[in-house]
Design brief:
This protein is an alpha+beta fold. The protein folds into 2 domains: 134 residues, Immunoglobulin-like; 157 residues, Tetratricopeptide repeat domain (Serine Threonine Protein Phosphatase 5, Tetratricopeptide repeat, Alpha Horseshoe), CATH 1.25.40. It is built from 15 helices and 9 strands. The chain has a 5-stranded mixed β-sheet with strand order 5-1-2-9-8. The protein has a 4-stranded antiparallel β-sheet with strand order 3-4-7-6. Strand 6 and strand 7 form a beta hairpin.
């Protein structure tokens, strides 16, 4: 049976029922002891909400209510359930995580109803007024409930309020530092060099040199670092973290490992840890553009836009060819509605890396906003040429069709 087949009919609460919950008697201690704790809330590739429980028991089918209007929201009530707040992300973190997979989600919050007849966990999802959904239970199994919003993926007709940073753009890996040549000299540490031991003349053969290299901790750190880069590129982030840390145990002055660790923590939305690693990298190499770029992404995620801009400006001043830093500056200026600066930064981004399709897309949106339809259409075409299956692609296609149709009517 497919993911999208219904196991249970859609269930909705009456509005009066929502209001009436506050007059119920509290749940008994025996009932509370039988609750299933919610341990994780996430989204899958089909834009469906996945709720996982700590136990493998079958949960009760949740009640789902869509409340359209200016304060559009979907309310999902799980009876005989609670929220493990130690395991589930905070509402702010969860909102960011879900919105990255389900773009039409504005915010998410959860609570436990105090006066319900049975222990009840409530999940509230805020949506734009313009988005029409049909929320329903599409799957229920041991320890899991899946909530769908529509039979088809839902596309929002408007561009995101805030453009994504290069940490979430299609070529986020372009900031990842490459592997190091293992046959070259490993990065120097800041520790005082130790005098080399004298060896007999007979011990200078090729095999002895190779053996010495194999036991050189600096060369070993490079091998571990290169292994971490491969894991990082493969998306095996937990394994990459371990490998980067092993590399740093061999060579504490390996700034590249600290910087790449910061990139991983940014991907995981662990911005405090990311900033800690980036600052360790700067303590070793204070003129590293990629690290400043990563700091900017972390600060923007923590709503410090001015701090982000300063770090991105530093990044491009140190490396004028760092395309993702130019792109990130463009997003910041766009948020500030400084479209001239934004366009200049986006142009610098694609000049240095044509793969930044998101930059073409953002330029198209700005041109469309300024009623420069032909220029907007050209930018959307370039965006689709770079990647026809990115998050922005469907919206770019729709806008391009609209602009081309509009042009045909005026001719």
């Amino acid at each position: 049976m497919s993911r999208t087949q219904k196991f249970f009919p859609s269930t909705c609460l009456a509005l009066a029922g929502l209001a009436g919950l506050t007059f119920m008697q509290p749940a008994s201690a025996a009932e509370s002891a039988q609750t299933l704790p919610i341990k994780k809330i996430s989204a899958d590739a089909s834009q469906e909400l996945v709720i996982e429980f700590a136990a493998k028991s079958f949960p009760t089918a949740p009640q789902v209510l869509d409340l359209p209007g200016p304060n559009h929201r979907v309310v999902i009530d799980f009876t005989d359930a609670s929220v493990d707040k130690g395991a589930v992300q905070s509402a702010e973190e969860l909102s960011k995580t879900l919105a990255s997979s389900i773009p039409f989600i504005k915010a998410v919050r959860y609570s436990e109803l105090e006066n319900a007849p049975k222990p009840t966990a409530r999940l509230v999802i805020d949506l734009p007024e313009s988005v029409k959904v049909k929320p329903r239970v599409v799957k229920l199994e041991e320890g899991m409930v899946v909530i769908g919003f529509s039979d088809q993926p839902i596309q929002t007709s408007q561009a995101p309020a805030e453009p994504p940073s290069a940490e979430t753009a299609s070529n986020a890996e372009s900031n990842l530092r490459p592997a190091m040549p293992e046959e070259t000299k490993a990065p120097e540490t800041t520790e005082a060099a130790q005098p080399a031991e004298k060896t007999p003349a007979a011990a200078t053969g090729t095999d002895d040199k190779k053996a010495a290299a194999d036991t050189n901790p600096k060369l070993e750190s490079v091998k571990l670092y290169n292994k971490a880069v491969q894991l990082h590129l493969a998306g095996k982030l937990s394994e990459a973290i371990i490998a980067y840390k092993e590399a740093l145990e061999s060579n504490k002055a390996l700034a590249e490992a600290h910087s790449n660790l910061g990139l991983i923590y940014n991907q995981q939305h662990n911005y405090a840890q990311a900033l800690s690693e980036f600052r360790k990298a700067l303590a070793i190499n204070p003129k590293d553009a990629i690290t400043y770029n990563g700091i900017g992404a972390a600060l923007r995620a923590e709503h410090d836009l001015q701090g982000a801009i300063k770090n991105w400006q530093t990044a491009v001043s140190l490396d004028a060819k760092l395309a993702t830093a130019h792109y990130n500056l463009g997003t910041a200026y766009e948020i500030q509605k400084d479209y001239e600066k934004s366009m200049a930064s986006y142009r610098a981004a694609v000049k240095n890396d044509y793969r930044l399709g998101e930059a073409y897309y953002r330029m198209g949106l700005i041109m469309e906003r300024k009623n420069r339809s032909e220029e907007a259409a050209e930018q959307f075409k370039e965006a689709l040429k770079v990647s026809g299956d990115s998050e922005y692609s469907e919206d770019a296609r729709q806008r391009l069709v609209y602009l081309q149709g509009k042009k045909g009517k005026t001719q």
